[in-house]
Amino acid sequence: MKRIDIDDDLYTYIASHTRQIGESASDILRRLLDVNSTESAVDAKSEQTESVFNRLNEQDVRIQKSVVARFLYILSMLYRCHPSEFSQVLDIRGRDRQYFARSEEALLTSGNSTNPKQIPDSPFWVITNTNTTKKKAMLTQVAEKLGYQSADAEKIRDFL
To answer: Are the C-beta atoms of 157 and 67 separated by less than 8 Å?
Structure first.
């Protein structure tokens, strides 16, 4: 993946065409320019193990309008970078409830007022009615489960 610098007005234009939480600038541009991805199987495999820092940047996170939207966006980026390992997050639990599941129903039955939301572009769901501090702790746990060192996990958490 290559990085390019663009003017703020162009970035705002691209971001204004977002259709769903977690949609990347590349996805938006592909749609606007009607360009299909031609990744080879090798490219797709290497993408599965890329660092989230290759995809996650402060500007993309900042355009998300709420803490919950930023939380879901970051989780979506982690899923996109580590789809085959992401099921490990199912082990992350609180004292009294489950934080992640493969269905909304599983989270609804695990506690009161869980407010489950689907992680964009993934088959996973997460509870969202926790405070920001707990969401940051959950992001740290997710990053560590996916193999990030503690210092990098904290950098991911700090995007929230």
So the answer is: no
